[in-house]
Amino acid sequence: MVLVANTLRGLKALAVLGLVLLVAACAQTGPDGLNGQNNATPGSGQDFIVNVGDRVFFEEDQSTLTSQAQGVLDLQAQWLNRYSQYTITVEGHADERGTRQYNIALGARRAQAARDYLVSRGVAANRVKTISYGKERPVAVCNDNSCWSQNRRGVTVLDNATN
Amino acid sequence: MMMVRYLRHLLFGLGTLLLALRPAYALVEIDVRGGNVEPLPIALPSFSAEGGDARVAQEMTQVIAADLKRSGLFNPLDPASFIQQNMGVNTTPRFGDWRVISAQALVTGTVTAQPDGRLRAEFRLWDVFASEQLLGQQFFTTPENWRRLSHIIADAIYERLTGEKGYFDTRIVYVDETGPKDKRVKRLAIMDQDGANVRYLTRGDDLVLTPRFSPTTQEITYMSYAGSEPSVYLLNIETGQREIVGNFPGMTFAPRFSPTGQQVVMSLQQGGNANIFTMDLRSRSTTRLTNSAAIDTSPSYSPDGSQIVFESDRGGTQQLYVMNADGSNQQRISFGPGRYSTPVWSPRGDLIAFTKQHQGRFMIGVMKPDGKGERILTEGYHNEGPAWSPNGRVLVFFRDTPGANGGPQVWTVDLTGYNEQRLVTPAFASDPSWSPLID
């Protein structure tokens, strides 16, 4: 349940972001990307973040990919297979409710899980690096699971994106 | 620094010869074996100053008193209650005056400016009820070393009255944290054990974590994100020289020195698993100690170097394991409810301190190396990462506070579980590690 709620919250955040971008661009309909929801240039870093989704979320102390996470990674793999000029770094992160060293390893495990999934979907292994930040780089700083669940994440970063 | 160290050895014998009357039968002593010790009332009238700066003499006395007080074993009495005034090292105490205010021990001292610019500090420790001198020493040092000399004197008093080595002439390395929670800047910092003399060892350009002191050299080992891959580094505190430890094919983390300072033991990330390796700093050879499909991390040597305690989730959750230093005979030792992590072996060898998570609470505890006798020393929202004082009596750890404006602070607690105190730092602070006793 918690995970569903989190995912919904994440989607809501993305939807809001998309909306803001739409408004900022005077609701122009951009060139048809994968989804064609906004004016992000297809194949751009913004396109990846807004239209594909750059992150997946994990359950507490887990590194197995949920079906939602697999769905996001499927989209990422399609996009990366289309735009093969990119190399990527998959960042693994943990929430703050663990000890530092373990969380570094847990983040690495999560990054590895996402990386392995992308590779299984056709992304060349030599395009993918991983790094773990443990609990050192939270994106949400409140004191309950609504934040911790956003911090338990794997983020796919385009190494050579221009925007 | 060297001068103090040298003179301390030279003058220890001499000072004792000159000043001590005889090996006294100590009425005044502290039994530190039990818990909840009643702090010993001790009087520390301001040291007198001869030909020098009276303020330094006064401040030295205050630093000594603060050290003793923070140990939880001493109760420095309010100077306003003192009857006998203007005490120097050669003043004969009127013991009755000190008994009246219930002082059990008395420290007198004098700081003298030498013609060559150095300071001479002499002190005597008195047993008030036996009307006897217990200790007398003198030291020479440069004026800027007055704080360090104060800690050395506090150690001498502590050792004489408790029978254990002191830990005041030591330092703590830690991670200084500034900036908002989602954009923290982390720097390696070092301070005296009482929080004075904070100095920064890195600039904050790179994320740095888990610094640990060498037991034998002025070096620390830590994890840094400076290079292309997060790795374990060595840093020489005095020269600032820095190097990566080993040439491992992956991220290395959770380093700690062996008791000889010759090896660094750490985790190497391999895919989804972390395993424990050692590297010999002289030969540069590396040895794998664990090989599990799990997270094996936070290794810490026993003080005799024969065993290593570490945490592993090989059984499903984080638990503590002990193995021989060559990796053989890996045995789980923690069996209580909850998750156990960050084990660290006491320098006395008799206990292992750890972080424990249970039902959303984070605790600092100790257990024997066979896993028996678990005791929780402190618990709360988030306590993490204990490290031992060099005499094995005090644990330093960090305590995080929740929310956007929360952050970690450094605390100490006695291994009895009493005397919990915050160690004040200029900013948020985490991952404290104690230096060995300098001698």
Automatic annotation (TrEMBL), chain A:
Key words of the record: Cell cycle, Cell division, Cell outer membrane, Lipoprotein, Membrane, Palmitate, Signal
Species of origin: Roseibium aestuarii
Subcellular location: Cell outer membrane
UniProt xrefs under NCBIfam families: Pal_lipo (TIGR02802)
Keyword Cell cycle: yes
Family: Belongs to the Pal lipoprotein family.
Source domain of life: Bacteria
Subunit note: The Tol-Pal system is composed of five core proteins: the inner membrane proteins TolA, TolQ and TolR, the periplasmic protein TolB and the outer membrane protein Pal. They form a network linking the inner and outer membranes and the peptidoglycan layer.
Pfam families found in the cross-reference section: OmpA
First-listed, main subcellular location of the protein, grouped into a coarse class: membrane
PANTHER family per UniProt: LIPOPROTEIN YIAD-RELATED, STATOR ELEMENT OF FLAGELLAR MOTOR COMPLEX
Function: Part of the Tol-Pal system, which plays a role in outer membrane invagination during cell division and is important for maintaining outer membrane integrity.
Range of residues in the leader sequence: 1-29
Name of protein: Peptidoglycan-associated protein
Domain OmpA-like residues, every copy: 45-162
Keyword rRNA-binding included in the entry's annotation: no
